[in-house]
Each structure stands twice: as C-alpha cells, then as structure tokens.
Write a structure and sequence with these properties.
Blueprint: H1 6-45, H2 50-85, H3 87-90
Helix pairs in contact: 1-2
C-alpha cells in the first residue's frame, strides 16, 4: 500500500478550494449584485413580493451562467486533467 505525501494532499485540496471559488464566484457575485439592486428597487417602490425579487435574480444568474459557461467548462476540464495527471506523482 502506497503512502501519499501530506503536502500533495494539502496542495490538491487547496487547488480544489481555489477552483471552486473561481468557478462559483462570478455566479455568486451576480446573484448578490442583482439581489441588492432588486431590494433597493423594492424599497423605493414599496413592492415587497418575494417573486419579484426571485425571478430577476434567477434570470441574471442564468444569463451570466450561459455567458461564461465555455470558460467554466474549460477551467473545470483543465483542473480535472491536471488532477488526474498528478495521481502517478502521488504514489
């Protein structure tokens, strides 16, 4: 049974966490920004329906997802290929 070096595990975990933040960050930022704008508009117009806040936020996130999907998939595939390629170095 092979013993895996702890530094490789830590580096792989750190890279996986960085990649998840990199891939999820833009979508979370758009959801946050859209929610902030919608909440300000709801406060100004005194319209406090939950659906009014949900639908535009969902549409904004979906539009950004469609716009950056090729980049997301490219980064994800590159990370996965690098991770699988580093397995022989771990053993």
């Amino acid at each position: 049974m092979a013993i895996v070096d702890l530094t490789h595990v830590i580096d792989s975990s750190r890279e996986a966490l960085r990649m998840s933040l990199l891939l999820g960050g833009p979508l979370l930022a758009v959801a946050l920004l859209a929610g902030l704008v919608i909440n300000v508009l709801q406060t100004v117009t005194q319209l406090h329906e939950p659906v009014v806040g949900l639908v535009p936020r969902l549409v904004a996130v979906l539009l950004v997802l469609l716009a950056i999907l090729p980049w997301l998939v490219g980064r994800w595939v590159s990370f996965t290929v690098d991770l699988i390629g580093s397995i022989p170095d771990l053993l």
